[in-house]
Design brief:
This protein is α+β, with helices and mostly antiparallel strands and 165 residues long. The chain contains 2 helices and 11 strands.
């Protein structure tokens, strides 16, 4: 009886689970994230059900990304290349550093003398602040997906629907 139940559960799980997604990131474009082209992203996943997006984030050397806050979920990062930190914090993320940010944390990201590449998993909105702590704008899964699709359209690149799952 237990074998029959186990077999049924396995069949059900295989029927309902998402298909695997395997692709070479070299095939994906670096999309400008900011208007001044100081940082770029390479989209890896857009989960419209949870509002979670995953991307490689590339920041040019010696940059200051303005004060911002992540809402709606934690941020998970794994630094691949370069060194960066948050102003006022006593740590520096170098290659191999894992970073967990709780929702609501406000910070200003600063890069050092080398280009940075970090894998980020984000949920919710990314809100931007001016020097008086007023919200000046925000990004979320839909604005980031729009940036990706518009960049592909403007550059004659076929956008990857299989990144939405």
């Amino acid at each position: 009886m237990n074998e029959l139940i186990n077999e049924t559960v396995i069949q059900l799980a295989e029927k309902l689970q998402l298909p695997e997604r395997i692709f070479n990131t070299d095939e994906l474009p670096w999309v400008p994230f900011t208007e001044n082209h100081s940082c770029y992203f390479k989209p890896l996943r857009f989960d419209l059900n949870t509002g979670t997006w995953i991307y490689l984030f590339k920041i040019k050397s010696n940059q200051v990304l303005g004060k911002h806050r992540h809402t709606g979920g934690s941020v998970i990062g794994f630094n691949i290349q370069g060194r960066w930190k948050y102003e006022g914090r006593d740590w520096i993320a170098g290659p191999g550093t894992f970073v967990f940010e709780p929702p609501g944390d406000i910070h200003t990201l600063v890069t050092e003398d080398e280009e940075v590449v970090t894998l980020f998993i984000l949920s919710g909105a990314l809100q931007y602040f001016d020097e008086d702590n007023r919200i000046t704008g925000q990004d979320d899964i839909y604005t980031v997906l729009h940036k990706y699709r518009e960049f592909c359209k403007q550059n004659g690149i076929e956008w990857r629907e299989d990144l939405i799952y």
